[in-house]
Protein backbone atom coordinates (compact mmCIF):
# COMPACT_ATOMS: atom_id res chain seq x y z
CA UNK A 1 0.00 0.00 0.00
CA UNK A 2 1.35 3.42 -0.90
CA UNK A 3 1.99 5.96 1.80
CA UNK A 4 -0.27 8.97 2.13
CA UNK A 5 0.92 10.28 5.48
CA UNK A 6 3.27 13.29 5.47
CA UNK A 7 4.14 12.54 9.10
CA UNK A 8 6.35 9.69 7.95
CA UNK A 9 8.59 12.16 6.20
CA UNK A 10 9.20 13.99 9.38
CA UNK A 11 10.41 10.87 11.13
CA UNK A 12 13.06 10.74 8.44
CA UNK A 13 14.18 14.21 9.47
CA UNK A 14 14.55 13.03 13.04
CA UNK A 15 16.80 10.27 11.80
CA UNK A 16 18.91 12.82 10.01
CA UNK A 17 19.23 14.96 13.12
CA UNK A 18 20.70 12.12 15.14
CA UNK A 19 23.29 11.32 12.51
CA UNK A 20 24.22 14.97 12.07
CA UNK A 21 24.72 15.45 15.78
CA UNK A 22 26.89 12.35 16.10
CA UNK A 23 24.61 10.81 18.69
CA UNK A 24 24.62 7.09 19.22
CA UNK A 25 21.21 6.46 20.77
CA UNK A 26 18.07 6.43 18.65
CA UNK A 27 16.12 8.40 21.24
CA UNK A 28 18.73 11.19 20.97
CA UNK A 29 18.20 11.38 17.20
CA UNK A 30 15.05 13.40 17.40
CA UNK A 31 16.23 16.72 18.75
CA UNK A 32 16.10 18.98 15.67
CA UNK A 33 15.17 19.15 12.01
CA UNK A 34 18.08 19.73 9.60
CA UNK A 35 19.08 23.33 9.01
CA UNK A 36 18.03 24.84 5.70
CA UNK A 37 20.91 26.06 3.53
CA UNK A 38 21.24 29.86 3.35
CA UNK A 39 19.67 30.05 -0.12
CA UNK A 40 16.58 28.17 1.10
CA UNK A 41 16.27 29.53 4.64
CA UNK A 42 14.25 32.58 3.59
CA UNK A 43 11.80 30.47 1.55
CA UNK A 44 11.07 27.70 4.07
CA UNK A 45 10.54 27.26 7.80
CA UNK A 46 10.04 24.11 9.88
CA UNK A 47 6.92 23.13 11.78
CA UNK A 48 8.08 20.48 14.24
CA UNK A 49 6.23 17.74 16.09
CA UNK A 50 8.06 15.48 18.53
CA UNK A 51 6.44 12.21 19.45
CA UNK A 52 8.00 9.12 21.06
CA UNK A 53 10.59 7.59 18.70
CA UNK A 54 9.85 10.07 15.92
CA UNK A 55 10.51 13.63 14.84
CA UNK A 56 8.15 15.11 12.26
CA UNK A 57 9.46 18.12 10.33
CA UNK A 58 7.15 19.94 7.94
CA UNK A 59 8.88 22.35 5.55
CA UNK A 60 6.43 25.21 5.16
CA UNK A 61 6.78 27.81 2.41
CA UNK A 62 7.06 31.30 3.87
CA UNK A 63 5.29 32.96 0.92
CA UNK A 64 1.98 31.08 1.16
CA UNK A 65 2.25 28.83 4.27
CA UNK A 66 1.79 25.64 2.23
CA UNK A 67 3.79 22.48 2.87
CA UNK A 68 6.70 21.98 0.47
CA UNK A 69 7.58 18.58 1.93
CA UNK A 70 7.61 16.71 5.20
CA UNK A 71 10.04 14.29 6.74
CA UNK A 72 10.05 11.89 9.61
CA UNK A 73 13.15 10.72 11.41
CA UNK A 74 12.73 7.48 13.32
CA UNK A 75 14.18 4.02 13.94
CA UNK A 76 11.99 2.62 11.15
CA UNK A 77 9.44 3.79 8.62
CA UNK A 78 6.12 2.31 7.55
CA UNK A 79 6.95 3.41 3.99
CA UNK A 80 8.10 0.44 1.93
CA UNK A 81 9.45 1.48 -1.49
CA UNK A 82 8.24 -0.59 -4.44
CA UNK A 83 10.34 -1.01 -7.57
CA UNK A 84 7.35 -0.45 -9.86
CA UNK A 85 6.75 2.99 -8.31
CA UNK A 86 10.23 4.35 -9.10
CA UNK A 87 10.32 7.86 -10.48
CA UNK A 88 13.16 10.42 -10.51
CA UNK A 89 16.67 9.92 -9.15
CA UNK A 90 18.60 12.65 -7.35
CA UNK A 91 21.87 13.21 -5.52
CA UNK A 92 22.04 14.16 -1.85
CA UNK A 93 25.53 14.93 -0.58
CA UNK A 94 27.07 12.17 -2.70
CA UNK A 95 24.38 9.55 -2.17
CA UNK A 96 21.79 8.48 -4.72
CA UNK A 97 18.20 9.26 -3.78
CA UNK A 98 15.47 7.27 -5.52
CA UNK A 99 12.06 8.97 -5.55
CA UNK A 100 8.88 6.88 -5.68
CA UNK A 101 5.45 7.84 -7.02
CA UNK A 102 2.48 7.78 -4.70
CA UNK A 103 -1.25 8.10 -5.23
CA UNK A 104 -3.98 9.85 -3.29
CA UNK A 105 -7.21 8.24 -4.57
CA UNK A 106 -9.41 11.30 -4.10
CA UNK A 107 -6.76 13.63 -5.64
CA UNK A 108 -5.61 11.90 -8.85
CA UNK A 109 -4.01 15.05 -10.33
CA UNK A 110 -1.68 15.67 -7.38
CA UNK A 111 1.93 14.55 -7.89
CA UNK A 112 3.19 12.55 -4.90
CA UNK A 113 6.81 11.60 -4.26
CA UNK A 114 8.44 9.75 -1.39
CA UNK A 115 11.90 8.53 -0.58
CA UNK A 116 13.59 6.68 2.23
CA UNK A 117 17.12 7.55 3.36
CA UNK A 118 19.00 5.28 5.74
CA UNK A 119 21.29 7.33 7.95
CA UNK A 120 22.54 4.41 10.03
CA UNK A 121 21.28 1.19 11.57
CA UNK A 122 17.92 1.92 13.23
CA UNK A 123 17.72 5.48 11.91
CA UNK A 124 15.87 6.36 8.70
CA UNK A 125 14.46 9.48 7.11
CA UNK A 126 11.20 9.24 5.19
CA UNK A 127 10.46 12.23 2.95
CA UNK A 128 7.04 12.88 1.47
CA UNK A 129 5.88 15.63 -0.86
CA UNK A 130 2.90 16.55 -2.97
CA UNK A 131 2.77 19.09 -5.77
CA UNK A 132 0.21 20.43 -8.21
CA UNK A 133 2.60 20.40 -11.19
CA UNK A 134 5.98 19.08 -12.35
CA UNK A 135 7.74 22.44 -11.88
CA UNK A 136 6.69 22.71 -8.22
CA UNK A 137 7.61 19.06 -7.66
CA UNK A 138 11.11 19.61 -9.06
CA UNK A 139 11.57 22.71 -6.89
CA UNK A 140 10.54 20.83 -3.75
CA UNK A 141 12.86 17.93 -4.62
CA UNK A 142 15.73 20.43 -4.95
CA UNK A 143 14.91 21.81 -1.50
CA UNK A 144 15.28 18.28 -0.09
CA UNK A 145 18.47 17.54 -2.01
CA UNK A 146 20.07 20.69 -0.58
CA UNK A 147 19.62 19.60 3.05
CA UNK A 148 22.77 18.76 5.04
CA UNK A 149 21.90 15.10 5.64
CA UNK A 150 25.05 13.18 6.52
CA UNK A 151 26.29 10.12 4.63
CA UNK A 152 25.30 6.71 6.02
CA UNK A 153 27.32 5.16 8.83
CA UNK A 154 27.64 1.57 9.99
CA UNK A 155 26.95 2.14 13.71
Summary, kept brief:
The protein is α+β, with helices and mostly antiparallel strands and 155 residues long.
Radius of gyration: 14 Å
Tell me, briefly, the overall form: globular
Helix count, per DSSP?
A: 3
Percent helix, as a range, is 10-25%
Largest sheet: 7 strands, antiparallel
**Neighbour order of strands in the largest sheet:** 1-2-3-7-6-5-4
Give the overall average pLDDT.
83
- The total number of structural domains is 1
How many E strands? 7
Low-confidence stretches: 1-30
What distance separates the N and C termini?
Answer: 30 Å
Helix and strand topology:
Layout: H1 7-20, H2 38-41, E1 44-51, E2 54-61, E3 67-74, E4 86-92, E5 95-102, E6 111-120, E7 123-131, H3 134-145
Antiparallel strand pairs: 1-2, 2-3, 3-7, 4-5, 5-6, 6-7
Structural commentary:
The protein is α+β, with helices and mostly antiparallel strands and 155 residues long. The protein has one domain (7-145). The chain is 19% helix and 37% strand. The protein has three helices and seven strands. It has helices at residues 7-20, 38-41, 134-145, and strands at residues 44-51, 54-61, 67-74, 86-92, 95-102, 111-120, 123-131. A seven-stranded antiparallel beta sheet has the order 1-2-3-7-6-5-4. Strand 1 and strand 2 (54-61) form a beta hairpin. The termini are far apart. Mean pLDDT is 83; it is low at 1-30.
Amino acid sequence: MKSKVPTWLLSLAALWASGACGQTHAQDAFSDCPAFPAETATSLRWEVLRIPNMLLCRAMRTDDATEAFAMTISPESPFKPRRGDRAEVGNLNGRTVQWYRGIVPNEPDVLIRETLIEVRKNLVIHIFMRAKDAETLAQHQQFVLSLPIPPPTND
